[in-house]
Write a structure and sequence with these properties.
The complex is a heterotrimer of chains A (754), B (168) and C (315).
Chain A: H1 12-15, H2 30-34, E1 51-57, E2 63-69, H3 71-75, E3 79-83, E4 114-115, E5 121-127, H4 130-137, E6 141-146, H5 153-156, E7 169-171, H6 174-179, E8 183-191, E9 194-195, E10 203-209, E11 212-217, H7 222-233, E12 240-243, H8 259-271, E13 275-278, H9 281-287, E14 290-291, E15 294-302, E16 308-320, E17 341-351, H10 364-382, H11 386-392, H12 410-421, E18 433-435, E19 438-450, E20 456-462, E21 468-471, H13 481-493, E22 500-503, H14 520-545, E23 560-562, E24 565-568, E25 571-574, H15 575-582, E26 587-593, E27 605-616, E28 623-633, H16 640-659, E29 665-666, E30 671-672, E31 690-695, H17 719-731, H18 742-751
Parallel strand pairs in A: 1-13, 11-12, 16-17, 21-22, 28-31
Antiparallel strand pairs in A: 1-5, 2-4, 2-6, 3-5, 7-17, 8-15, 9-14, 10-11, 10-13, 15-16, 18-19, 19-27, 20-21, 20-26, 23-24, 24-25, 27-28, 29-30
Chain B: E1 2-7, E2 10-15, H1 22-29, E3 48-51, E4 54-57, E5 70-72, H2 74-77, H3 85-92, H4 102-117, H5 136-142, H6 153-167
Parallel strand pairs in B: 1-5
Antiparallel strand pairs in B: 1-2, 3-4, 3-5
Helix pairs in contact in B: 3-6
Chain C: E1 5-8, H1 12-21, E2 25-28, H2 34-39, E3 47-50, E4 59-62, E5 65-69, H3 74-79, H4 81-86, H5 88-95, H6 100-105, H7 108-113, H8 119-122, H9 164-170, E6 174-178, E7 184-188, E8 211-217, E9 225-230, E10 241-246, E11 249-253, E12 260-261, H10 263-270, H11 275-282, H12 295-314
Parallel strand pairs in C: 1-3, 2-3
Antiparallel strand pairs in C: 4-5, 5-8, 6-7, 6-8, 9-10, 10-11, 11-12
Helix pairs in contact in C: 5-9, 10-11, 11-12
Chain lengths: 754, 168, 315
């Protein structure tokens, strides 16, 4: 593909003859998941019984390991190996890329005596059983020279600087616009550190077959995991076969690998037997990345009719001392509302905290918690309905770069959401509605999330039974990849879903970018469509070139594919019969997809609206989400069922962000307070009332050849703000320091004399 | 220690380290890996199994303490070819995403419906003197010991409600 | 987990004798808290005596009240018809704690003896006088909201996490035990738990090897009963504060090292004070920090609302 315009031509997905595209078919791998027979990394059966590795985390945040005493651990029952930085097998220095095109460099485990965050893996114990390994891990004695942890984000705010290579973006003259606006708002919000809390803690199982390392792990991106492990082991990339067939949640936290993978591979090599290593739930909190805290200053200057004249979000955030990650909480706003004078940017400070990194809807999840509440506050100042305020600031083109929108149905999301939800019942004055002990309020927010298309490859095969096999180094982290690839394959080849097999999560399959940033389905699916088209062509040529086929001599371009039958008008045979006869070893075709350069001429986003009804107990400050509706426009939907689940899941993440999720830092120790799922509270079933997601009809033909966009992050954009706005409407208290826990809300209620 | 546990209808004799939890005995000794380890501390519910018909967290139970017990795991409820009605309902309602909490959710749901049938009250039961009526609020409260980080909560409620309705 | 030996007790007398004579012995009942802590090596028993199958799981009528066997599970007690009818505050308290799965396993005796959920108690890299007497208390200057405001000491500001115990204290329950000498002891549950003082690692007045065998409920007190709990999450979370009212008796949870019988509030209320006045008097000596100060107004408001709710039901 060289141009976006090529995508206008019909293809099997956009034509959707059998209607499979969009249909809410059950998950491809569902029968395995509901019966517990889908093996996750730690559960794969190795060729011989595995040894068990347990990591030890550092008890300081910064400093060095001064002394190591592993004698007792070594002598403990069943122990096979005890490693620290002193005796771990050598690994190439961090970042080494022996192969220049590796997508990740070396990530040595137990690298040195240097400790750069609390809970950093500093030792490994391997034993014959898990019980022996974990018991011995408690016998590893490490003493430290501890530095003073530099972890106090709020104290370090003044020291935050421009993230490397970034500039503030100013359009017009923000200060002048803000100064001359008749109605202004200038408030600051803060969001806390959050943890991914995937249900499956990171885990790896490795063994060696000769010089080849077979590694099963739980990761969202296959190629960087394979390359990174190969570079760390100092072996050829092809000597690592990395598999990740089932992944118990990712949310960005498994976008990279961790020391469990490296150590499992190293230990398996050293011991000559399979080794598996898993993080404990407690270790996950510090040992893997987190969403960093932010402070966000929002300034809005509006005309009296609500039109924004000046608009700014500035975000302060933090990352690890050795890291470069920035939580871009201001970026999403650049495409959201019109305003001639605009200023957005970020400030970053490096702290002795664990690695900051992407977590579901990075940027939007944090940023909408400020801006979408600021819009609610501004609407109140203006005496305008919050929905109407947003509609009045709807831009005609992307307000930052002037590019046309490929598709933008934000206003429709707002209007239809308002109508379906019964938004007209909202009383603008807070605290007016009571239901028993609950004060009831309604709130809303807009949602936006960018859309991306990344290069990907895929292969399609057909065998003599007419079975289509899709092969791709893609992952399914619960997103529905298996299922939508099967749907694309079935629709493209005109076969029933039941004859499609999908093989993913394997480094030896054609590479795809993996799951993240809601680019997965579009990127992987576009390559799948290309592979499917190539296989169609190969089949058509096979049929029309085979003297024994009824299609012989026909025009390959006119061959149709439906119900497992290839035909040219009334001449037909089954696909299986054709292949069995003319290509008994089967046919394989590859396809690839990459973004054409002219994609950048459009501003392509996904949009939505959230409407929420909460109850606030004015006695305790407890909040309950009673009902919630999200209306989304995200291109063509491949699977109504799995897409809806992605969206409702994202919305619930917003509820968590608004109400319960946040991890405090103990500045004395540099550690997080929430170290398990009893301390770090993710929403449970009882926190979620009636919750629904609606997807508007849309095709975005500038997004990719299928006209689809992603939905994995969108649901989490704006959802928390809708909850916060509903809380205000219920009780008249604004808490701008997330999460809105009873202690904070109670303080506001008391201050209001309630 | 020699321990005999009837797992999914079959008596299984194991020589176990007393430290081995029921969860690890199932996963690492019997290779019944459908029961998941999500937190190992009773905070997530992914390890929920039925012991003598009652749902518990397998992670907070020593296997040797279950000598003579009957344990039903997700593998004992149904197979991909012959799904238990609750498994079918989870499939139909898309009551899962990554699938890691799913076996625990399903075992928990099966045990939970029995508890309702037995009249056990919950925090959502307005008057604990009366028997609970299984509505959405009751299901949500009673299933709150099973965390789903993918947050398939509405779909899980729908799946369980569908099974409960079909059973009644 | 440290290695340990395991035995299943078949005889009560023998179990308590062995517990008192075997070094490092602990009773194992439901195990939901003990195993949790053993996995983190906060508890390091050398020998476990599994008492879960001793015949102590019955709930029986006793002198106009109920005698609840120590091995009765939380679910069993919450679901018992007599408890639901005559002691609804107990059912309400039990079902507002933990999860269905945990309540199915956790026992009555074990629930009373469960240990604090203080994050600094759980993080074994931090000083904690409960784990290591004399080590200091990281929570004192820490960043947890879930700390005590009543009866705390400079050695420990942890709170007792049980909901059930709060209701039992309001109901005026007794605890029955078997001592290693073979004697049966019975005393008010209010006297089971200790305040931390300088020895927060000693949490109860039980003697080594003594086993709780039952909780005895007196006849239900006249008047309404209610349990109210405030927490971050709608379910499966410990209390910021909780209140049990049974007739004229009031107990508080989430505020102290033990379930707190609010005798000052009870007296004030009986003397005609308003609920807010009564609870304000109860909490007059509360010692608060920046993070847990909210528990004072929270408890006062929760109490007023609970009293109002009971009066509403009565009216």
């Amino acid at each position: 593909m060289s141009s976006v315009h090529d995508w206008a031509a019909p293809n099997p997905v956009t034509t959707n003859r059998s209607g499979l595209i969009g249909k809410g078919v059950d998950r491809y791998e569902g029968p395995l998941k509901v019966t517990g027979t889908a093996p996750y990394a730690y559960e794969v059966r190795p060729p011989s019984p595995p040894a068990y590795g347990v990591m030890v985390g550092s008890a300081i945040a910064t400093g060095r390991i001064a002394a190591v005493d592993t004698a007792e651990a070594q002598a403990a029952p069943g122990v096979l190996a005890v490693w620290t930085h002193l005796n771990v097998p050598p690994q190439p220095p961090r970042g080494t890329k022996a192969h220049p095109r590796s997508t990740a460099g070396s990530r040595p485990a137990l690298e040195s005596d240097r400790v750069t965050h609390w809970g950093q893996p500093v030792a490994l114990v391997v034993a014959d059983t898990w019980e022996n390994a974990i018991a011995a891990s408690a016998l590893v004695r490490l003493s430290y020279e501890a530095g003073t942890p530099d972890v106090d984000f709020s104290a370090r705010l003044p020291d935050a600087g421009q993230p490397p290579g970034e500039q503030d973006v100013e359009i017009g003259d923000f200060d002048a616009g803000f100064a001359t606006s008749p109605v202004t708002l200038d408030e600051t919000w803060s969001t806390p550190i959050q943890n991914h809390c995937q249900m499956e803690p990171c885990a790896s199982l490795a063994w060696w077959e000769g010089d080849k390392c077979i590694a099963h792990t739980s990761v969202q991106m296959v190629k960087p995991a394979q390359h990174g492990l190969a570079e760390t082991l100092g072996i050829d990339r092809d000597a690592v076969h990395l598999l990740t067939r089932y992944i118990g949640g990712g949310f960005g936290g498994k976008g990279q690998t961790y020391d469990d993978l490296t150590l499992a591979a190293l230990a398996a090599r050293a011991l000559g037997r399979p080794v598996k290593v898993a993080f404990s739930r407690q270790q996950m909190m510090h040992g893997t990345i987190h969403r960093p805290a932010t402070v966000q200053r929002v300034r809005l200057g509006a005309e009296k009719d609500g039109r924004l004249n000046a608009f700014s979000i500035m975000t302060w955030t933090h990352c690890h001392q050795d890291g470069t990650f920035t939580e871009h909480a201001s970026n999403f706003a650049r495409a959201l509302y019109a305003a001639p004078n605009r200023l957005t940017g970020h400030r970053l400070v490096k702290l002795d905290l664990p690695g900051a990194g992407p977590m579901r809807a990075p940027g939007e999840a944090s940023g909408t918690l400020s801006l979408e509440c600021a819009m609610d506050e501004l609407a109140e100042q203006l005496g305008l309905d919050p929905v109407e305020l947003r509609i009045r600031n709807e831009p005609a083109v992307d307000p930052e770069n002037g590019r046309p929108f490929s598709q933008r149905q934000l206003v429709r999301c707002l209007r239809e959401g308002a109508q379906m939800f019964g938004w007209d019942r909202r009383l603008p004055t807070p605290g007016q509605v009571r239901d028993g002990r609950w004060l009831v309020g309604l709130g809303m927010a807009a949602a936006i999330r960018g859309n991306f298309l990344l290069p990907a490859k895929c292969s399609f095969s057909v065998d003599a039974e007419g079975v289509i096999t899709v092969r791709q180094g893609m992952t399914d982290i619960g997103t529905g990849t298996y299922t939508v690839l099967a749907q694309i394959a079935a629709e493209t080849l005109g076969v029933p879903l039941g004859v499609v097999k999908v093989e993913i999560g394997d480094s030896e399959l054609p590479p795809a970018p993996g799951s993240g940033g809601q680019f997965g389905a579009a990127s992987a699916g576009s390559a799948a469509l290309a592979a499917g088209m190539n296989l169609r062509r190969a089949i058509a040529e096979l049929a029309t070139g085979d003297p024994n086929s009824p299609l012989y001599g026909g025009d390959p371009e006119r061959v149709t594919f439906q119900d497992g039958v290839v035909a040219i008008e009334n001449r037909s045979e089954t696909l299986a019969a054709l292949v069995r006869r003319a290509a008994p070893d089967g046919l394989t075709a590859e396809g690839d997809s990459r973004p054409p350069p002219d994609m950048r001429e459009w501003s392509t986003q996904t949009y939505g609206s959230h409407f929420c009804e909460v109850g606030v107990d004015p006695v305790t400050g407890e909040v309950r989400v009673r009902r919630m509706l999200g209306v989304f426009a995200a291109g063509r939907i491949l699977n109504e069922k799995t897409a809806r689940s992605q969206l409702t899941g994202g919305m619930i993440w917003g509820v968590g962000s608004a109400l319960t999720e946040g991890n405090a830092v103990d500045p004395r120790h540099g550690s997080l307070i929430g170290q398990d799922l009893a301390q770090y509270l993710v929403p449970v079933q009882a926190d979620i009332g009636d919750l629904e997601a609606i997807m508007l009809d849309e095709v975005d033909d500038k997004a990719n050849p299928m006209g689809i966009k992603g939905v994995g992050e969108l649901g989490n954009s704006g959802a928390g703000a809708a909850v916060a706005n509903a809380i205000y409407n219920a009780c008249g208290v604004r808490v701008r320091d997330y999460p809105i826990t009873p202690d904070k809300l109670l303080a506001g209620l008391i201050a209001k004399g309630m | 220690m020699l321990t005999t546990i009837t797992v999914n209808g079959e008596a299984r004799s194991l020589d176990l380290d007393p430290r081995t939890t029921l969860l690890d005995a199932l996963r690492e000794h019997l290779l019944l890996t459908g029961t998941k380890k999500g937190c190992d501390h009773g905070q997530c519910g992914a390890c929920t199994v039925l012991v003598n018909g009652v749902r518990i967290n397998a992670c907070l139970s020593l296997a040797v303490a279950h000598d003579g017990d009957e344990v039903t795991t997700i593998e004992g409820l149904g197979t991909p070819e012959h799904l238990h009605p609750m498994q079918q309902a989870f499939l139909t309602h898309d009551a899962y995403q990554c699938g890691y909490c799913t076996p625990g959710q399903i075992c928990s749901a099966v045990g939970m419906l029995r508890e309702v049938e037995a009249g056990l009250p919950s925090h959502a039961t307005r008057d604990v003197r009366a028997d609970a009526v299984l509505d959405g609020e009751e299901i949500r409260e009673r299933m709150s010991g099973n965390i789903c980080r993918c947050s398939a909560y509405p779909q899980i409620v729908a799946a369980i409600a569908a099974v409960a309705e079909a059973e009644s | 987990m440290r290695p340990f030996t395991y035995e299943r007790a078949t005889d009560l007398g023998q179990a308590v004798r062995e517990a008192s004579q075997t070094p490092g012995a602990r009773f194992l009942a439901g195990g939901t808290n003990l195993l949790d802590l053993m996995k983190l090596e906060i508890e390091r028993p050398q020998h476990l005596i599994d008492v879960s199958r001793l015949p102590l799981a019955g709930v029986e009528d006793a002198d106009g009240g109920l005698r609840i066997g120590a091995m009765a599970t939380n679910s069993q007690v919450a679901g018992d018809r007599r408890v639901r009818e005559h002691y609804p505050v107990l059912t309400q308290a039990i079902v507002s704690g933990a999860s269905g799965q945990l309540r199915n396993k956790a026992t009555t005796g074990g629930n009373l003896l469960q240990r604090t959920r203080c994050p600094y108690f759980y993080d074994t890299t931090k000083p904690c006088n409960k784990r290591t007497p004399g080590a200091g208390c990281a929570a004192l200057e820490g960043v947890s909201r879930e700390t005590a405001i009543l009866g705390a000491s400079t050695a420990c500001i942890a709170v007792h996490p049980s909901d059930m115990a709060v209701a039992l204290v309001a109901l005026g329950a007794d605890v029955e035990t078997q001592t290693p000498a073979g004697d049966t002891r019975r005393f008010p549950l209010m006297e089971l738990h200790r305040l931390p003082g300088e020895t927060p690692h000693i949490e109860t007045h039980l003697i080594p090897g003594e086993l709780i065998t039952a909780v005895v409920l007196p006849p239900p007190p006249p008047g309404g009963q209610i349990y109210r709990k405030a927490r971050d999450r709608a379910s499966y979370a410990t209390a910021h504060a909780s209140i049990a009212i049974a007739g004229g008796q009031v107990a508080l949870g989430g505020l102290a090292h033990k379930p707190w019988r609010a005798v000052t509030a009870e007296a004030a209320l009986a003397a005609g004070a308003s609920p807010t006045e009564a609870m304000t008097a109860e909490l007059a000596d509360a010692s608060v920090g920046e993070l847990n100060a909210f528990k004072v107004p929270l408890t006062t408001r929760l109490f007023a609302a609970a009293v109002q709710e009971i009066s509403g039901e009565a009216a």
